[in-house]
Structures are given as structure tokens and as C-alpha cells.
Amino acid sequence: MEGKDALRGLPVYQPGKSLEEVKRELGLSEVVKLASNENPFGCSPQVWEALQEEKFHTPLYPEAEAPQLRAELAQSLGVAPQRLVFGNGSDEIVQMIARAYLDQGDEAIMADVTFPRYKTQTVIEGGVPVEVPLKEGRHNLDRMAAAVTERTRLIWICNPNNPTGTMVSGAELEAFLERLPEHVLVVVDEAYFEYVEDPSYPDSLSLLTRDPRLLVLRTFSKIYGLAAFRIGYGVTSEGIVGELNKVREPFNTNRIAQRAARAALADQEFIQRCQKANREGIEQIQAQLVEWGLSAFPTQGNFLLIDTGRSGDEVYQSLLKQGIIVRAGVAPGYPTYIRVTIGNEEQNRLFLKGLAACLEKPFDERG
How far is it, in rounded angstroms, from Cα 196 to Cα 212? Predict the structure, then answer.
């Protein structure tokens, strides 16, 4: 039996291959996964210490409003607790936003190459995705503003953008918001916010206190290393939080995830170490790419979109046979590109060694 009309032709999201899957398929014992922008350093050790007390609470439902995490996160961010909404990963909040704000025929504007769940959730709700081509790998805010009509309800901006790693500056975002009519909600997805080093990056939390049309998404899945726990959050006006709560499932963030997030949030020294290691990893890979005459988009995330100069799918398959998982086919219009997550020093070295073998490039393992 077929589902509703909106689902016809809708692709199923394809996550990066897992370590276990590749080991089974190729009979490998050692595999490096650099496909899903996960933190290669795991999470703060304080998480596991904090979770010991939760083993007695497994029969109990979580507190639906996550009051302790809400209070601690609000204090950390400097926002009112009532401005926070939590989700089973920030992608669940993407679903909640589409469900709460899109009716049949409503339009949602997004980049043509960006996080694919914006388009998927728009289509599921009967909305019309309006895709604006990137300009040199960056959001084209002028064309996005020009695409707004009376039917536009949402604009999605992934910042830094996945999969290109490029960013919209604070000045650009403010100028963009000034051009928009009051009926448009702007969602700025900052999943990789903690990795950004560019000082021109928006102070979005300050912006949203002045602009009720803004909703900022963040997550504990990336630099905090809690992807397995599935917990993310949004910051916006109390009114928008109220609308999202109408479509939020009652126990959408489990109590173990809430406790893990609290412990992870408290260990900012771990976050700073991960930031530093990520920048060093980017420099490690980019230096070799320059030596080989290859290019990648300038990134503010924990990944690089690299132009290999040949079929990205072929490079992906070659690396996979060597036990190195990356992503290809993530960017329509970029057929020669692969996206690689920044790993630890050894993982980055193995990736470069594998890429060198695939592209027949010289590589000195001693660095």
C-alpha cells in the first residue's frame, strides 16, 4: 500500500556507511570512518561518570521539558530558558518546524546543495521547496531574498553549510534579515557552530533577541561527541517555542541523553581541545592537497569538500576498499568531489595515504 502523494518519488536519506557495515561487506578488521562529521575524539569522560547514576532510572520516563538541561544550557548561552526547545537531534526540530509552519503549497527557500532534510521535511508537509544555487559554494542571500513571495513561510540557512563548510557572515545575515517581510521565519542551522574560527561569524543569539523571525538550531551530536544519544536544541522566541511544542512528541529526548548533554556542556576544556585538534587536522590535510594541486572549499566545520579531479564515486569506492569511509554524491553538481570528516592525526594520515594511492600521487608518510 502506497503512502500519501507527497511521498511519491521522495528519496530515503542515506547515511554514511557504518564501521560495522564495511567490515562485514569487505571482510576488513580495521576501518576508518570519516563520513558523518563525527568527533574522532569521542565525548568528554565526564559524560560516562555522570551516566553511572542513570542506571537506576531506566524504567522511568524522562522529564519532557528537560528542566535541568534547560536551566544549565540557558545559563551557558545567556538566554531565557523559555527560549529553548529540545529535539531528538536537531534534525527532529527541522521536522517539527516544517510540521508547525508549512501548509499545503507553502514555500520554503533553501540552497540547492545543503543539508537534505530541509527539502525532505518541506515536501512531506506538502510544501514547495524553492532551491537557490550556491555561489562559489556559499549561500546566495541576494537570490534567496529575491525568491521570497507571499507564499514563502520558511528560509533554511545552514551555517556553516553542509557539505561545503562555507559560512554566512554576521553582516550578511543582518542585511538579509532586513530585506525580508514579517511573515517569513528564518532558520539558521548552526550544527557546526563550535568549530567556527572566523570572527565575522554571526552572533545569532544576540540577533534573535532583536528579531522574532529567527530560529537558531544547534546540536550535541558534533563537537560534543554525543551523536549516539540524539539530542539537539533550538533557540528562538517564546511564541515559536510554543508552536513547536504543539507538534513535539511528549518524551522526544530521553533522560540518558539529557544527562549526557549536561555533563558534556560542563566540560568546555574538552571542547577547546577538540577545536584546536580540528584546526590542526584541516591544516594537515589542506597542506597535502596544495602540494598535489588539489582544492577544497574553505571550511569552518569539521569536514572538507575536496575536488579530486576525477569521479568522486570512483575515489569513494577506491578508499572504501582500503577501509576508509568518506562521502561521495553528497553534492549534486559536484561530481568530482568527496566530503571527508577531519579525523585525528593518524586517521588523517591514513586518508591521505589512501587518497594518494587512488590518485597516484606521491605521499611521504613521515609528514
Answer: 25
Distance, CA of 78 to CA of 208 (rounded, Å): 12
User: CB–CB of 216/234 below 8 Å?
Assistant: yes
Query: How far, in whole angstroms, is CA 270 from its chain's centroid?
Result: 20
Q: What is the mean pLDDT of the chain?
A: 94
The model's pLDDT over 298-344, given as tens digits with 9 standing for 90+, comes to: 999 999 999 999 999 999 999 999 999 999 976 778 999 999 999 99
Closest CA to 300 of 276, 279, 326: 279
**Which three-class secondary structure string do you get for the chain?**
CCCCHHHCCCCCCCCCCCHHHHHHHHCCCCCEECCCCCCCCCCCHHHHHHHHHHHHCCCCCCCCCCHHHHHHHHHHHCCCHHHEEEECCHHHHHHHHHHHHCCCCCEEEEECCCCCHHHHHHHHCCCEEEEECCECCECCHHHHHHCCCCCEEEEEEECCCCCCCCCCCHHHHHHHHHCCCCCCEEEEECCCHHHCCCCCCCCHHHHHHHCCCEEEEEECCCCCCCHHHCCEEEECCHHHHHHHHHHCCCCCCCHHHHHHHHHHHHCHHHHHHHHHHHHHHHHHHHHHHHHHCCEECCCCCCEEEEECCCCHHHHHHHHHHCCEECEECCCCCCCCEEEEECCCHHHHHHHHHHHHHHHCCCCCCCC
Model's pTM, two decimal places? 0.94
Q: How large is the average pLDDT for residues 175-185?
A: 96
- Reported as a pLDDT band with limits 50, 70 and 90, residue 366 is low
Residues 6 or more apart whose CB falls under 8 angstroms from that of 178 comprise: none
Residue 32 main-chain phi, psi, to 5 deg: -110, 120
Phi, psi (degrees; rounded to nearest 5) at 71: -65, -45
| Residue 329 pLDDT | 74
What pLDDT is recorded for position 25? 77
